Amino acid sequence: MNSSTVHLLDLPDEMLIEIFNKLSTVDVLNSIWGVNQRLDRLARDARFTHSLDLTAEQSCDERCSMSDVILDRLCSHILPQIHDKIKSLFVEPSSMQRILRVRAYPNIRQLTLRSIESKDFIKYLSDNSSVLCIFKQITHLEISTIEYYNSRSQIHLNTKIYTRLFSVCQRLTHLKINGKRLRSYSLLPEYALPLTVCSSSTMIKLDVNVRTIDDCLRLLDGRFNQMKILNIIIDSIDTSLLNIDNQYILSNLTAFCLTTRNPTQEYDNVIVPLLRRMENLETLMLFLLVGNRPEFIDDVHLSEEILIHMPRLEKFIFDITTIDDVVEID
């Protein structure tokens, strides 16, 4: 490299792989595949192919479908040659079925699905689905699709989805549901999810949004008896309708993150007793809005009422806003 100009191919393999991993996977594969033997070898390198994001990036925060030309080339020429190296896939609805049907993916363990309609997702989980084997072998699943509406038909559909999801994906250890509510209880009792539906003996980490504190308490009632990490966002925390044994210790839980969307007046009656059951926590994160409480939640309160019950705690992050609605006027 005597010249003052350094070309891309002058860089060592390790540096090229680092560069490729910071760019769009689709763009990199489409650009370097078939150029020369060295770039073909790097495109097959496990450091690059083990995790593939096969969506087209539209902006920093948005993703869109790739063009038909690129998708055709990807499915016809590229994926068939690297399918056995892929351990993680990130796909979107319009191209998902074609990508997953290219070949068997014997080593895939993680699947991320974005913006998939409920009616389509249930088809992928059906017995005659051509991609059912993928869902049976994955251990990590991230989806943003399932949502409850105020209609019986939608609630019934989502009940079927969760029934099928936990029936098919029996190897799941990590499940993340973005932006939609996982509800084990419904205002329509006939569509409430029974214990045997929403349960798993392999789940270790669960990330979900739920509607009420009762939904959260049900997730901690033993149906996920191996769960160690729970990250949960709750719309509203009101008085629980469940008969909960506050002496039952959640011994497996080592990390808990709780976020509330709306102010709650049940901090002392519901949240504090729940946290005291987590005596083996190593990480605790609380993002709360607490309303109508005459005393602010300060470090003394947190230490004496909560942290003293967690002798193994190593990390505590919190943002707690205490709202006093009572204004005294002299």
Verbal overview:
The structure is a single chain. Helix content is 32%, strand content 21%. The chain is α/β, with parallel strands linked by helices and 330 residues long. A hairpin with a 5-residue loop joins strand 2 (56-57) and strand 3. The model is unreliable at 184-196 (pLDDT under 50). The chain has a domain at 204-325. InterPro entries: F-box-like_dom_sf, F-box_dom, LRR_dom_sf. It holds the Pfam family F-box. Residues 5-52 form the F-box domain. This is F-box domain-containing protein.
Entry summary:
This protein is an alpha/beta fold. It has 12 helices and 12 strands. The chain has a domain of 122 residues.
Keywords, please?
alpha/beta, 330 residues, two-stranded antiparallel ribbon
Number of strand segments: 12
Helix content: 25-40%
Q: From the alpha-carbon coordinates, what is the Rg to the nearest angstrom? A: 24 Å
Spatial strand sequence of the major β-sheet = 1-4-5-6-7-8-9-10-11-12
Taken from the alpha-carbon principal axes, the silhouette is globular
* H/E element sequence: HHHHEEEHEHEHHEHEEHEEHEHE
Overall structural class, as computed from helix and strand content, comes to alpha/beta
InterPro entries: F-box-like_dom_sf, F-box_dom, LRR_dom_sf
Organism: Rotaria magnacalcarata
Domain F-box: 5-52
Pfam families: F-box
SSE diagram, text form:
Blueprint: H1 13-21, H2 25-32, H3 37-43, H4 46-49, E1 51-53, E2 56-57, E3 63-64, H5 68-82, E4 88-91, H6 93-100, E5 110-114, H7 118-124, H8 132-137, E6 140-144, H9 152-168, E7 174-181, E8 205-212, H10 213-219, E9 229-236, E10 255-260, H11 267-276, E11 283-291, H12 299-305, E12 315-323
Parallel strand pairs: 1-4, 4-5, 5-6, 6-7, 7-8, 8-9, 9-10, 10-11, 11-12
Antiparallel strand pairs: 2-3
